[in-house]
Design goal:
By secondary structure, the chain is an all-alpha fold. Helices cover 71% and strands 0% of the residues. The longest helix has 37 residues, at 2-38.
């Protein structure tokens, strides 16, 4: 069972990391557009549309990745003080009451939205000869399906936690660097470590 959970975590992580490269491409696109507009005096009319689509795709595809890494924002003021079984029980109720209906609605509406856009080969109307919108709109149901799949994995984790009294393991991820721990690990000369 744990291998299946890790497999879905890895898929969500891989997709999120792959789409994160859109941020690098977006940075280059914005830099080029500013240069073209203010130095070369030849702005590209499609650049603004493309920037919105790239950012939107990166944002949508990061949802399952963030859920896999337990990184979504929550009211953690009291939650972190609760025992794991109470946390899992609350999470389980919230997954069934809000998460599943919301994400199913996202997938359903996103599919309809993307299918209509594809059927008419929709293009952006913000600028003349705007770029096609249907590839971007197809990201919506795809992101929703990945998020729903990762949500089912989180529901299984909640059930395991309710049964065992402890949260099951997750795939390892990068952690924030604590400066004091880093100094102690490096043990810089002339520096006192506590």
């Amino acid at each position: 069972m744990q291998n299946l959970l890790f497999f879905v975590d890895r898929v969500s992580s891989w997709v999120g990391q792959a789409f994160s490269w859109l941020i690098v491409a977006l940075t280059f696109l914005i830099t080029w557009e500013v240069f073209a507009r203010y130095v070369l005096n030849t702005p590209n009319p499609w650049a603004f549309d493309l920037m919105i689509m790239m950012y939107g795709a990166a944002f949508m595809m990061a949802g399952a990745y963030t859920l896999a890494k337990n990184g979504h924002v929550r009211g953690d003021v009291l939650y972190s003080f609760f025992p794991p079984r109470l946390q899992a029980g609350l999470d389980l109720v919230l997954y069934f009451v809000f998460f599943i209906p919301g994400v199913v609605a996202l997938v359903w509406a996103g599919y309809t939205y993307a299918a209509e856009s594809f059927a008419i080969r929709e293009h952006s109307t913000l600028t003349a000869n705007g770029p096609p919108l249907y590839p971007f709109k197809m990201v919506i149901p795809f992101a929703g399906v990945l998020l729903l799949l990762q949500g089912f994995v989180e529901i299984v984790r909640c059930i395991v936690c309710l049964r065992d009294g402890a949260w099951p393991a997750r795939e390892p991820d990068v952690e924030e660097v604590d400066v004091d721990k880093l100094k102690a690990a490096v043990n810089l000369p002339g520096e006192r470590t506590p």
